[in-house]
Amino acid sequence: MTTQTQSLYRWKDDPVLTVEHLSMRFGGLLAINDLSFEVGRGDITALIGPNGAGKTTVFNCVTGFYKPTEGRIVARHGKGAQTEAVDHATRTGKRWHKSGEGAVFLLERMPDHEISQKAKVARTFQNIRLFGGMTVLENLLVAQHNTLMVASGYTVGGILGLPSFKKAEKAAIKKAVYWLEHVGLVDRADDAAGDLPYGDQRRLEIARAMCLDPQVLCLDEPAAGLNPRESADLNMFLRYIRDTHGTSILLIEHDMGVVMEISDHVVVLDYGVKISDGDAAAVKNDPKVIAAYLGVDDEAEIDVPEVRQDLSGAKGVPHE
Amino acid sequence: MSGPGLVSAARTPNASQGAESRMTRALREASIAGALAGVLGFFFLALRTDIVTGGLEVTTRWGLWFTAIAIVFAGRLALNLFWFGHSYGAGKTAGRKITRLLPSSKIVGRVALAFALILPFFFMVLFPNRDRQYIDLSILIMTYIMLGWGLNIVVGLAGLLDLGYVAFYAVGAYSFGLSAQYLGFGFWTALPMAGLLAATWGLILGFPVLRLRGDYLAIVTLAFGEMIRVVLINWKSFTGGPDGVSGIPKPTFFGLEIGRGSGSFGDVFGLPYEPIHRFVYLYYIILALALLTNFVTMRLRRLPIGRAWEALREDEIACRSLGINTRNTKLSAFSTGAMFAGFAGSFFATRQGFISPESFTFLESAIILAIVVLGGLGSQIGIVIASVVMIGGIELLRNLDFLKQIFGPSFEPAEYRMLIFGLAMVVIMVWKPRGLVSTREPSATLKEKKLIGADQIAQGEGH
Predict the structure, then answer these.
(1) Is the minimum CB–CB distance between B308 and chain A shorter than 8 Å?
(2) Does the ipTM surpass 0.90?
């Protein structure tokens, strides 16, 4: 029990990303209602919930694809909650505030491209969005656009063929190769991304997001459509990203095997509301979660031992 | 171990059956096509009515009718047997086949360049009587190549369908025409200014259309193109309205005029003046401008900005998730493309010596776009081929007198040239729906350069 409270404190104490009172309304539909949660620095946080619970909407709000109706989303570089800096930025109406100990970014105020460029929050998509007509290598170079753009002197230096740009491009290719090696695609670097098999495309999309050197990596169903072996490889790869690069990961996932195995922290959504929040073990046994997944009425007690067993085994959870 | 044997034994009869069915299918389809041609052509070809005193007179032309049917039958048969047969089920291997052709496409480019460099002398030596006409045609084709390359940045690379490209061509032409008229600018002073002005207009017109997607984008660019033309017509006090601007100066050679008299190019270099010099000089100017366009485009493709353009064509949302400012990226594509149209426009003004809004109608935009689409979106060499085919083809069809011998002396080939031309375009687009050169050359390679097949390449907005 003590370890649980400690880890609970960790994401509260050192959150890389906080979502506060987030609401998103589409016309008459309230897709997310007053949602708050933290993503701990260096944690793998899973956002789960039945279909239509609003998980992808949360992602779209965090990465700037939607402007939330209400709420604050803060990304932090550097240690701690930096409450003062956050308050300062909120009061002054600035989009971010940099101080000696780090920087805070108010994501709900920033356009999508600034979120990945400045706040270093990268994402992948549920339906893979690669540049199919470009090679695998080119996909990873596009991800380094802003770095290369500066190195090319905003194109002028590049047209003149300055050596500094060539050096930067070599470095970019080196970085691309580094990630290609880790997703096992280095032999396919010169093939069109659209020609890759599905599993490879999923991994390439993660590699592409990693080329942004993100602080937070948001993965929308990274294990969808993968076979058990690929799924296990993915788990290892995500752990590697977290351990070696210190990237915090926020993922949406339906595959409970993946979620329970690698998540440090699980947030459960249902109908746009948070129904449970805690480490994997705590969430797994939360009656509200079981109710949401099995469609049992909220008030009713779950008294079916087989169901409990199934859920704790984390295999038989129906996930449409 | 009997597996492979079994498989091959099972395959052999299948293969021969396939060949047989292909032959019968080809025959059947050819017969259907022939029958269709017969039905359709019966009233047009077999019967001819002439108005004579006292009514109509019907003459029959069975020979012509049968010839037409035979041509359709044979053509369809040949297509089925030799053309479609190769593309059936080619699918994945097609890309790899083309990979092997890669060096040859490079060679094609080099040969074309070498030929373009000596082209005026080639015509002067081989066709001394018609050299002026041919060089003039080459200048026209080269202008369209340059315009095609410029539009290729917007449509082919960034995937933004722009139906009003001719507006920037007009801006370039008028900025030279008017600056010559009011300020006395020469071609070389006006050229950079024309490019700059067109690029600025690209920014101005690009800004409001950025939020639009697909068909809407295409329609709004079309409207902007027309707006510029209408302004040129109606702002009579400044632009001269429908009367246009005349007396636009010819380009000088480092301050030397290409013409007669002392202090002219011929005088200084000791060459007797011939009118052809002016054409040759114009040809080399447009060649240099076109090559500049090509060079810059090729360079840009390998730079982050060019890669971002292509990424934008592939998937705009993914671009945004990767920190690319799509607004600026689109604007840069728009204004870069517009700049080259501006250069081409001021060249057009100096070549014609006279410009009027009539030269900048939607048809021009359509022709330039057709060149880009026909050549293959994003392909530089494809645009060269398409320009030669389209512009050269239209001119060639003007003097097809041998057709008179087939269709009778009253047949005027010049009247049918747009029809024939349209047919040819339909044929090309059916045969190669993604343009003549539809493969894409990657902008960066790790080990081995492989071309990317058309089936993977997205076409962007509005296609």
Answers:
(1) yes
(2) no
